[in-house]
Amino acid sequence: MAAPGAYPSPHPPEPARHRIAAAAVRLFCEKGYEATSVREIVAAAGVTKPVLYYYFQSKEELFHRVLRDATDHLTAELTAACAASRPTFTEQLGGIARVYFDAARAYPDAVRFVHVVAFSGVYQHVLDFAAYWEGNMRLLFGVFARAQQAGWLRQDLSPRTAAFHFLSLVLGTMRAIVYFPRLAATEPLEASLVPLFLDAVDGLTPSCAAAEPPPDSARVRHLPSAPQAPEPPP
Length: 234
Known about the structure:
Blueprint: H1 15-31, H2 38-45, H3 49-55, H4 59-83, H5 89-106, H6 108-120, H7 129-150, H8 159-179, H9 181-186, H10 189-201
Helix pairs in contact: 1-2, 1-6, 4-5, 4-7, 5-8, 5-10, 7-8, 8-10
């Protein structure tokens, strides 16, 4: 299991590597990449410099790797949630939201780290965040487009606009879990998000919250499975 604060790595489980990654993520958040020294990282991880350099060629390579592990992990989880077949659109959205909420609870330091890097605008040479967010949004566009085709989403709504607003609410709740845990613990933020969103946009036809569509409906029960989201129109 990954050390607290670090996303799971695709590499074989190695406790020292995970401790180094977790320590680096925490220190990069607290002090910034430039102000964090290798000496501080190894001291926080309880290892020596040779051990760090066994896994990572440099502090820069460590920075790149923990950032890539974090973004790759979230995208993989989101891809699975978007491709999963659910009985209702409500459950589909709930599964997608849980990807972000589970990440916030399990890896709060890593979430902070990604935010610090992404919103600083300084590290675009490390990871193209515009392309990263766009790729994740395309997954959601596909979910909402398929829901509309299946009759779960009103035809006069833009699937892209609805997906964008839904993700905005999810990301806001994710940040509340990370930065305001006391609020998240006392308010039903997670359980209420999907119902509030669907009520606010009036995006569901009256029967689609039920597991089975009405007998005289032409709607299908399951969202069509499509791992590749359609390209947004130019």
